[in-house]
Specification:
This protein has strands at residues 6-18, 22-25, 27-39, 47-50, 53-62, 70-73, 78-83, 92-95, 103-105. The chain is mostly beta strands.
Length: 106
């Protein structure tokens, strides 16, 4: 049987140091607020999203204030919102059917 997708998870006041800092697959209703994300690996995307929807990222801070690489995959990736976070639209990568309007930056 297929596994149920992760739904309705909220994480606040985080400090994460990792190679791939955030990876969200087949999930919906995830909220990440007030997080410091430090990626040790410059070769992989800092934020990787695959077939996930209704994601909200607020007040993200990154090591050295550098805008992270963000990769969005799959045609089911929708309604991904970043607010008050240093996200550079030029560092967004859409692959495997992901649509550019899936991500909104405020």
């Amino acid at each position: 049987q297929p596994e149920m997708p992760v739904q309705k998870v909220s994480m606040t006041n985080l400090s994460i140091v990792a190679n791939k800092v955030i990876e969200i697959k087949d999930a919906s209703g995830i909220v990440v607020k007030n997080a410091f994300l430090h990626s040790k690996d410059t070769e992989t995307p800092t934020i990787y999203i695959e077939n996930a929807s209704n994601l909200r990222f607020e007040d993200l801070k990154f090591n050295k204030n550098i805008s992270p690489e963000l990769e969005v995959n799959g045609g089911n990736a929708t309604n991904i919102v970043f607010s008050n976070s240093n996200i550079d639209k030029r560092k967004l990568n859409f692959k495997h059917g992901a649509k550019t309007d899936a991500v909104k930056i405020h």
